[in-house]
Amino acid sequence: MSNLKSSNVIKNAFPWLLMILMSSVTFVGILSELMPSGVLPQIMEDLEISEVQTGNLVGYYAIASAIFAIPLITLTMHFNRKYLLLTLLGGFAISNIVSGLVHEYTIVIALRVLGGICAGVMWPMIAAYGMRLVDEQHHGKAIAVIMAGTTLGISLGMPIMTSIGNQFGWRNEFIGLGGFILLIAAVSYFALPSTPGEKLTKSSSPFALLKIPEVIIILVLTLLGVIAHYGVYVYITSLVEEIQLAGGVESALLFFGIGSMISVLIAIKYTDQYLRLLTVAMFALIIISMLIFLLFGGATGFGHFAFFLWGVSFGPLVTLLQAAVSRQVETAKDVATSVQSSVFNLSIMIASSVAGLLLGIYSPMSLVYFAIALSIPGIIISLLAKKALN
């Protein structure tokens, strides 16, 4: 009786502290994925490996996330959500701490794959776990708060961790992050409520979800939105150099980060009521920001404003699309978000590859045209998709 009472208290009042704790999980999740990119030269010198091999530390992580998300979410559907999350945090901690201790490249790669597998399960399951702890009208807010950790990780966490790596060495950076993850796991053990898993049925399998037209529409929007954003973001340094932005890439990331954080706050407040409007606005703002780059380049003020608007567009990307796909199913939201998460990771890989090819043939401004070309059908589909983005 007391458990039922406490569960009702959680659902009636929005549990900010629990959602912020879950947000810290996505914060360390994105840092685990991207952290090597800030200290690549150090790792390359220490392990005596090539630039391509060092880049694989991020690439293999992302590939593992994309490949293992759907099968492992399906296999772990019946697991208790709290203990599954604690297991994943343990995997993240091992991946980072042991990577900071070993000196063999193949072992580090294996540990990065382990981290990627944990991420592949964590990204879709934590959003679904959070939604179970709130009333239905707060599902969008829950996803927005939880996924705010990714934006904080990119805009604030990465510069801090890179600074730590440059000052104290990449090994101490990795071990330090692993220790912080263990601290989050300890707090989660005592703070998070125990929630049972769900039974997987034919109607809630990944293949059944792909028969729902609205799910396909959301996956297409994911593909368009993610490739448009990441095709430029992966090569943001090249764009900054091309337009000769005052203040360089640090200035660009600052304005981008400010825009991202503002849009996350907007998403937290309005996703539940205005999902379709926010999705349309996301595609519209990337088009506007890219047009400013084309028309005004790095002209004082204009370039910085464009990075700010682009950040506003980028910030709620994960939140809006996960909220949309989770609304298409009553149960097995973990499976629905895992399908969307796999397409998200696949889209990042496509974005990186296609943008790299364009950059090898044309100037960095070709990436801006590429983003606009993908965003135009994105905005049209969003305007028409009343049922998918209800």
Automatic annotation (TrEMBL):
Subcellular location: Cell membrane
GO molecular function, one term: transmembrane transporter activity
Pfam families, per the entry: MFS_1
Any GO CC annotation of this UniProt entry: plasma membrane
Transmembrane feature ranges: 12-31, 58-76, 83-103, 109-130, 142-162, 174-192, 212-236, 248-268, 275-296, 302-321, 342-361, 367-385
Keyword Signal among UniProt keywords: no
InterPro entries: MFS, MFS_dom, MFS_Efflux_Transporters, MFS_trans_sf
Occurrences of domain Major facilitator superfamily (MFS) profile (ranges): 17-390
Keywords, alphabetical: Cell membrane, Membrane, Transmembrane, Transmembrane helix
Membrane topology of the entry: Multi-pass membrane protein
Predominant location: membrane
UniProt name for this protein: MFS transporter
